[in-house]
């Protein structure tokens, strides 16, 4: 490639980046696993830490030049411990999957058995079986068994699960590791009774709080470390509105093994600029997280109610639709017929959501390409200051696309207009810059 061509590609990259930022200013983003971080988190992510190495633990590094990095990482761990009321925190994992794999590496051996939720019932690919290329099955070599699931309650069926655990034990197939949590769970999971059985024979219990970490940190959902979990893994960019990354908190007696699971087992260098940004978001959540989390949940419940009134089949209606940030909606009997068509049509109208398998989809021959459902989350729009009226308005926009089959262009314009009033991040110390401002430092 000639240098002029390289220059042209270089210019094109920045033009695309700016276009993305402009588009984000006009969209309603309801992806349940996403959020928008504060200008402070963004500032922390563009510092020189990103060019450095600091393998190991503060005070035990294998590189020089880390004196400020160490102090920031210690602060990050301390703030995380305070937020999650935990004895031990490790902010080094560079993703939620690697946080899970670090704990699996610390407490299982290949060939051990893990129990978790299957993907159609909300489980994450990092917990899936070998044949699905799931991290636990394919990378750690674990045999996977599933929690029994109650499709009406949208939750783990405690009695049936305990019966399954006991049946398996009688056949000599005891579960070594329990992975609670998931990628879709609107209601708190029932830990204590299952944990009691698991602990009765010495199994290890982790809670994957990737989606709900912000809600758990602010005591707004459930409290896995007090409900029997030995550790909790999570990502740092969903309801916890920080940088992309992972984190682990645990009771003290598990700290040494987890530290070694993170380094040297699963990481060499971790991402130090993200450690700085994680420290910032933990401070933000300690100061503003309670109000933020409670508004996220209220907004999800209002959005569920408004969508139901607009004709959508929102699951969990008999339990108030959700107690978290997430809503599951069955769309197979709407005019658009499947989650993918809904996702595509809404995206053309500047509304970003994702399609989602429903627990019963496989029985109807549906798969993740054209599933029967969609998943919505309210974390990002709440961060921009939206409340009840805006949730009602969003439900109306969605009805215009999915049921009224209105021209997407006209809804897209209305959505962009609606978004003009919501350009700042809320629930943060510093909010001078707009949320999606393109900041040029070249
Ligand atoms: N499972 C993805 C999600 O929930 O969107 C994130 O890993």
Give an overview in words:
The chain has 442 residues and is an alpha/beta fold. The protein has a domain of 245 residues: Aspartate Aminotransferase, domain 2, CATH 3.40.640. Helices cover 41% and strands 12% of the residues. It has 14 helices and 15 strands. The strands form 4 sheets. The protein has a 7-stranded mixed sheet, with helices on both faces. Helix 3 packs parallel to helix 10. The radius of gyration is 22 Å and the shape is globular. Bound molecules: D-serine. D-serine (DSN) binds next to loops.
Main traits of this protein?
442 residues, alpha/beta, Aspartate Aminotransferase, domain 2, 4-stranded antiparallel β-sheet, 41% helix, 12% strand, globular, binds D-serine
